[in-house]
Each structure stands twice: as C-alpha cells, then as structure tokens.
Amino acid sequence: NKRIKIKELLATAAQGQQVTVMGWVRTFRNNQFVALNDGSTNNNLQVVIELGKYDDAFLKRITTSASLKVTGILVESLGKGQSVEVKAEEVEILGDSDAETYPLQPKKHSLEFLREKAHLRFRTNTFSSVFRVRHSLAFAVHKFFNDKGFFYLHTPIVTASDAEGAGEMFRVSTLPFDNPPRKEDGSVDFSEDFFGRATNLTVSGQLEGELGATALGQIYTFGPTFRAENSNTARHLAEFWMIEPEAAFYDLEDNAALAEEFIQYIIRYAMENNGDDLEFLRQRLLDEEKGKPQTERSELDLIQKLQFVVENKFERITYTEAIDILLQSNHYKKKKFQYDVKWGIDMQSEHERYLVEKHFKKPVIVTDYPKEIKAFYMRQNEDGKTVAAMDILAPGIGEIVGGSQREERYDKLVERMKEMHVPAEELWWYLDTRRFGTVPHAGFGLGFERMVQFVTGMGNIRDVIPFPRTPKNAEF
Ligand code: ATP
Ligand code: MG
Ligand code: MG
Ligand code: MG
C-alpha cells in the first residue's frame, strides 16, 4: 500500500511525483474538482479529474462522503488556498455515499445539531481538529510523566470503595434486576453477587494510586472515571477521563509546582504539534464571536490565551483570600452572584470563574480549603479548620484540578474518617499504608476533558469527548 497521508503529502511530496491517496469526498465541483479529506488534516487535497475521462454514471457516484482511492501526479495548483493538487490518473470508488440520505451537508452545522449526529460528527473539520488535539494532549500526558520518572499504574475500573464519598457511583452487578436475592431485613444481598459484595464503577483511582506511590515512589493513573452526575452542565460528564499523579515525599508546594509544570507542558506540546488545528479552532471562535458586542468578546484569541498560560506563572492564593476577594468585589456588592459568598462555602463555578476571568485574568491555584467541604484523606493543617487542599481554576472553565497533600498520620486519618462517617473497616487496606512506613505524599486529579476544553476553546464538554455520556444519553 503506497498510500501517502494528505498532511504528509502537503508537507513533503515533490511536484511531478506519482502519489496514491485515500479519503472521503468533502465536495465535488463541475464534474472535475474533488476536495478530498483523509482525516490527517483539515486541509483538503484537490483532485482534478480530466473531463471526458469517466462517464456520467461514474461521476454521479462521487458524492459527499463517498470514499475514494486516487492515484495521480502531484502538480502545482492555480486554485487559491492550496499550493499543489493531484491530476488523477486513476480514481476508484471504495464506498458509495447516498447523497439523498447522508445527514451532513458541506455547509456549517451547529454544535447542537452535530451532537444529535454524534456518530458522524468526526467527519467535520471542527471535530477532527478537536480529536486530533485530544490525541496529542493524551500523548503528552504520558510523555511528561514518563520523562519525570512517574510510572503509569492501572487502577481498577470496578471497585468497592467510594473515594470521594459523594454518592455519585454507578453500581456494577450481575444480580437479576426484577427479583434480586434479599437479606432478612429486605435489603439486597450482595453476597450473592458476582464479586460477593457490592461494587461500583470507579469515581477516582486515587486511593489505589496511593498504594502504588507508597512503594514505587511516583505513579500516575490515566483512565476512565464514572460519576452519576445528575445535572446537565457544560463541564460534567457521567464518564470522563482523569489523570491522577500520586507522589511519595511530595508536600502541597511540590504538588502545586508539579501540576503547573504539567499543565504548561501539555499545552505547549499541543501548540508545537497541532498548530494548524489550533489555528482552525482559533478562527472558529473568532467567527463565533463576530455576532457579539465588542464588550463580550475575549481580549485574547485562543492562541494568545494559550501562549499567555504557558509563559506566566499561575496565581497562588489561599481559600480564605479567595473568599475575601469575592466579598470585596463590586460583583458581590451589586448582588450579581447567584449563590451566597461566605467562608465555608464550596465555591460555585460562578465564583471560580469570577476569580480567574475578572480578577486575576490567569489560572489560579487556590489552597487550604475548609475541611468540611473536602474529602477525608486530605492532610489537616495546624489551624484545625483547613486542609492542605489545592484546586486549580482555569479561565472559561473553573475547576480543572483538585488535589491535596494526603493525611499520612494514622491517628489523624482515622479520627477524620470517624467524623465523616467513612467506614474504616472497609478501607483497612488503605490504612495499612499509614501503618507500615507511612510517608508524606500528595497528588491531584486533572479532568482530561476540561483540559481539552481549555485548549480547544470548546464551550461544552460534550464536544471534546468522542462518545459523551450524560443523563438520558448513551446511544452508542
Ligand atoms: P466539580 O466541582 O466541578 O463537580 P469535583 O470537585 O467534584 O468537580 P474532583 O472530585 O475534585 O471533582 O475531581 C477532580 C477533577 O476531575 C476535577 O477538578 C475536574 O477537572 C474533573 N471532574 C470532576 N467531575 C467531573 C465530571 N463529572 N465530568 C468531567 N470532569 C470532571
Ligand atoms: Mg463534582
Ligand atoms: Mg469541586
Ligand atoms: Mg474538586
């Protein structure tokens, strides 16, 4: 198979050379000009078919989304927007596409429409760009941690523990739905279930990750996580991917520095490897903003925004400082926040976005949250009120990272579990890390889709994952 990808062809092939390309028809004009796309780039290759070379019956089959194999000579193009084109010597139709019933048109569709056609939206420039960028970011995740000496640890997808204690778990069971075995008190008897106990899809790999980190030193997980989020927001999915490094001998400061370096690294990687896709997405956003009044348009375009983030240090504040800033803001005084602000609240997305978008205008690392609103495993600070937590907030998104230094002191951890009604007997294996050679350690979770949203500028999280899972939506 001598096929060359269009991206490579445009970058390296010499004029006069014979090439074979395969792809899908985007448009076909004047029975002569095919715009061919093979997924390697949004730049279509123009294929020119000599008039009279093929009969009408054949030409009629060259419709949008039909797939072709073309062999021809690469020549200079006189058309605008392209330097070369292929003069076809042989055109083979690999697969027909019925123009009457093909659901997408060459015109621009709304993202909402394309969500209804999620099985075909890969074939649009926007989604091709988004998923190529997503690929690069995922690759960069592994590259970053590998180069830093972190080991990729695969934590289980089916678990018995609820790391976050937020009650957002999907049950996994092979018991019959209609008439499950029951205990004397009427509750379902999970001892009859496949694993002999109740199990769930994981909400986070952290607790298991800590087992790895307290032996291998530094590990990271990068896998699917599941939360039965019963709301339809633009930043929550029921199935999303999370990157969770966990590092022995790290304190909160090391953890924050790692997160910042990591985020800047993967953005830089995408900028270096997906320049044309990011340029396309930048233009897409500018077009989208054209309809808006000047005051509502972004100050920086997508690429300027990313450039700014990789070149500037993130802001650092404590939770207490964050609340003070909110309380002193005109926004608060004019009662523009929907949710109340006071020390102790779990900040809402409107608060987080105010801090990053209006106040600091850059990503912010917020540390030392009230212990009441954070999970049991975070390390208690000396003040008795706060824990060594750290969230990273990003413009346009809000929370993108949640992390902490972990409570490594056995007694304090057990005390905290009691206070929060976390069943210590079920987490005996977790407590063992504190009983046998405990060490200070820290880690964080970065929501991969929120990161992809940030880098691509896509407003809705459903548009950065190939197969979104949201309430009442799991078509395929
Ligand atoms: P949020 O406050 O936005 O609901 P969280 O505090 O519940 O997030 P964590 O438990 O801290 O989330 O999870 C770590 C990271 O995982 C978050 O910072 C976020 O980037 C991502 N994340 C959490 N829930 C979701 C979700 N339902 N869909 C996509 N990403 C998510
Ligand atoms: Mg949540
Ligand atoms: Mg949160
Ligand atoms: Mg969080």
Automatic annotation (TrEMBL):
InterPro entries with a match to the protein in the record: Aa-tRNA-synt_II, aa-tRNA-synth_II, aa-tRNA-synth_II/BPL/LPL, Asn-tRNA-ligase, Asp/Asn-tRNA-synth_IIb, NA-bd_OB-fold, NA-bd_OB_tRNA
Any single biological process term in GO: asparaginyl-tRNA aminoacylation
Subunit structure: Homodimer.
Molecular functions (GO terms): asparagine-tRNA ligase activity; ATP binding; nucleic acid binding
HAMAP family given in the database record: Asn_tRNA_synth (MF_00534)
UniProt gene name: asnS
Stated name of the protein: Asparagine--tRNA ligase
PANTHER family registered for this protein in UniProt: ASPARAGINE--TRNA LIGASE, MITOCHONDRIAL-RELATED, ASPARTYL/LYSYL-TRNA SYNTHETASE
Domain of life: Bacteria
Reaction(s) catalysed by this chain's protein: tRNA(Asn) + L-asparagine + ATP = L-asparaginyl-tRNA(Asn) + AMP + diphosphate + H(+)
